[in-house]
Amino acid sequence: MFEALNGAPRLLLRQELTPLQTDRFQPTGFADLGAAVYDAPGSKRMLLVESAQSVANRLEATCLEGFGPDISPELVGLPYVRVKLTGPVETLTSSLIEAHRINSPFIITNDAFRTPFLERSGYVKGKPIDWKRIAGALFHYDPNSLLHGVFMANLEDGRVRLPRALTGFIEASGVQEAASGGVKNNPLDPSGRIRAVNYDQNVYGNVPYLRTEYTAESIQACFNLDLALIDGYGLEREAEELLIALALYKIRRFLRTGLRLRTACDFDCEGELAVERPTGFSVPAECDLLQHLQECIRICTDKKTFASPAVTELVTNCVLKADDREKADKATAR
């Protein structure tokens, strides 16, 4: 399916987008910055609509069952690590939804996982790293961690760091502000004088607000799949095929189902997903990618490339942070 990609260092994709229902859209806002507006060469006014980190989160979410922690039913058999947390809070989490993925303290500090991972990866504190063994171990337990990157700062002396193989962002060009505003009405007491006994913050009464949206000449989602990085992992051919198919499947799913980014930011695809590099390749349809991905999962399972069972189950005991324990003790004492 991916013969046209042989020897190519990158797969670069671009999808033109257009706002639904109106020309206006709401970009992501950054703390202490607001919207990321900048000037491109030639004085073209640009706007970062969605950052690489945000798009990574959205791509990861495409393969979850609901909001997680488990993988979607059509991808059952793809490995990941699921953790039952016990103690002050009892819940489930997994390497698919943890902020640090497989480097989550709930995973990597658990000896039931840490010890076999060290053995499989050959990682030893202070000694040279065999990156192919590292990649093989990560693929064994959670192939998604190879696509989205991982910095295993919590493992031994913290030298294992793999960048994202799949990166995406959304940007707009020729942008102009569209200022507006509104008010959140309090029909009970517009003045805000009536307040709850235990909450005296300025959130009562009518609350007027300003809002800045944008219009743009063009909006595009860009994706970069680092084929050279994947090839450098030294995995078996079917494992490489799985990573490429999984990456493209996530992109197709995101463009079909995930383009309502915020309340006032909803996009639609305009035209087809374009391949900028390499020439001669076209991205298969979502259904074809899923079928190929499921076949790769079956082959990797039969060849015992994956963990068995595919879902590595852990139990991690938790405690409250010291100051939170003190607060809880004082509250109990009252």
Short key terms for the protein model shown above:
27% strand; 2 domains; alpha+beta; 8-stranded antiparallel beta sheet; 334 residues
The helix/strand series, from N terminus to C terminus, equals EEEHEEHHHHEEEEEEHHEEEHEH
Report strand %.
25-35%
Overall 3D form: globular
Number of strands: 15
Describe the structure.
The chain is α+β, with helices and mostly antiparallel strands and 334 residues long. The protein folds into two domains: 291 residues, no CATH class; 32 residues, no CATH class. It is 29% helix and 27% strand. Strands 1, 2, 3, 8, 11, 12, 13 and 14 form an eight-stranded antiparallel β-sheet that branches. A three-stranded mixed β-sheet has the order 5-4-15, with no helix packed on it. Strands 6-7 form a two-stranded antiparallel sheet. Strand 12 and strand 13 form a beta hairpin. Helix 7 packs antiparallel against helix 8. The longest helix has 21 residues.
